[in-house]
């Protein structure tokens, strides 16, 4: 069951006695958790019937005792365990989960990891309640995810602006939605968000960012690439070396894959790399500049400078110096 269906059931007061919300992506866990807290009880019922505890500050016996309690002047009781991954001896909850109290909605919000599906606790929750796995979204899916999210808010976004957000914020959906929600407060509904809106309201430069650096290197525009790297040296938080290395590594890996594809047609390349067709076109053009031998050399450079940035065989060069030297080598 996807998160939308789960939330729809919750809003219609169709509750399970047990919920395990687990996985690496906290965004969906937070959405479902919020829906449960807002709908399980009326506001006047919460003082006596809502118990919210944190895993690291709780013990299993106390939690079971609360879950076995009966509601006071309400239809149900809510027992919510936040940061359940910190709960010591969590497996001991299996005795309760094998026969849960029908008048209690019991929630385990287990973030940044997965509860072992081989454990009896997992199996009891799956049998008697609901298990939701919240996986991290893949990087290649981010721009589509941003577009889909904005459609629900009556906004749209240009491909470049979407790529800027994805490159700068990564696949942290909570950060992305926070920034998009800020824009929705500042911009009129129906607006198509562009890179100028991103620069003026979020602070990501439309000209000096990792996305533009990769584009400059794709066409071997040395002056532009060095201008961007010089900007990074004066604004270290805008693009740390680890972010630059990661993006360039992905760029060169994609080029290498294109070199060995049996079909270089735009639609085929886009489908294989799972990127937008215009991105596939730009990457295919870049393969004319970067042959396989050069790509292999550049990937070795990225590995070397990643280690240097962590202090391996480097005692004197700053991150800024390493970045300038790396970018120069990659294009020569």
CATH superfamily of the largest domain: P-loop containing nucleotide triphosphate hydrolases
User: What is the CATH class name of the largest domain?
Assistant: Alpha Beta
Number of strands: 7
Radius of gyration: 25 Å
Can you walk through the features of this model?
The strands form 2 sheets. Strands 2-3-4-1-5 form a 5-stranded parallel beta sheet, with helices on both faces. With 332 residues, the protein is an alpha/beta fold. The chain folds into 3 domains: 3-133, Rossmann fold; 139-201, Orthogonal Bundle (Helicase, Ruva Protein, domain 3), CATH 1.10.8; 216-330, Zinc Finger, Delta Prime, domain 3 (Up-down Bundle), CATH 1.20.272.10. It has helices spanning 3-11, 26-39, 46-49, 60-68, 94-97, 120-128, 142-151, 159-169, 173-186, 195-201, 210-218, 222-234, 241-259, 266-273, 277-286, 292-309, 319-330, and strands at residues 18-23, 50-54, 77-82, 104-111, 130-133, 156-157, 192-193. It is elongated, with a radius of gyration of 25 Å. The termini are far apart. The chain is 54% helix and 10% strand. Helix 4 links the parallel strand 2 and strand 3 (77-82). The longest helix is centred in the last third of the chain and has 19 residues, at 241-259.
